[in-house]
Amino acid sequence: VCFLTLDPNTANTSLSLCEENRKVTWMHGKQPYPDHPDRFDYCEQVLCRESVCGRCYWEIEWSGEYVYISVSYKSISRKGLAKE
C-alpha cells in the first residue's frame, strides 16, 4: 500500500489541501498560497510528491456532482493554458 501526498507547492490557488495533504477541494475563492515556481497558475491541478511507476491503481472517495482525476508527469507545464 502506498499513500500519495499532494504537493502544496504545486497546488493551484483554487484548490485547498487538508488531511495532511491527502485531500483536495475546489474552492470559489483563492487560497493564500505563497508564490512558488512549481505552482499551477492557470490549470486547477496539483501534483503528488511521490512518483509512481509500473502497474498502479488508486481508490478515490468523492462527493458532489463532479470529480476530475488525471495522471500526469513531473515536467508538465505549470504556467498558462498548457496544451498537454
Account of the 3D structure:
The protein has 84 residues and is low in regular secondary structure. The chain has a single domain, classed as SPRY domain (Jelly Rolls). The chain has strands spanning 15-18, 23-26. The protein has a two-stranded antiparallel ribbon with strand order 1-2. The protein starts with 14 loop residues before the first strand and ends in a 58-residue tail after the last strand. The mean pLDDT is 90.
Overview in brief:
By secondary structure, the chain is largely without helices or strands.
Strand order within the widest beta sheet: 1-2
Shape: globular
Name the quaternary structure: single chain
- Helix count, DSSP H or I runs of 4 or more residues: 0
Instruction: Estimate the helix proportion, in percent.
Output: under 10%
The pLDDT mean sits at 90
Q: Span from first to last CA?
A: 29 Å
* Biggest β-sheet description: 2 strands, antiparallel
Radius of gyration: 13 Å
**CATH fold group:** Jelly Rolls
Secondary-structure-derived class: little secondary structure
Please tally the β strands and state the result: 2
CATH architecture: Sandwich
Name the CATH superfamily assignment.
Answer: SPRY domain
The unreliable regions are none
Protein name: B30.2/SPRY domain-containing protein
Pfam family, one: PRY
Keywords: Metal-binding, Zinc, Zinc-finger
InterPro entries: B30.2/SPRY, B30.2/SPRY_sf, ConA-like_dom_sf, E3_ubiq-ligase_TRIM/RNF, PRY
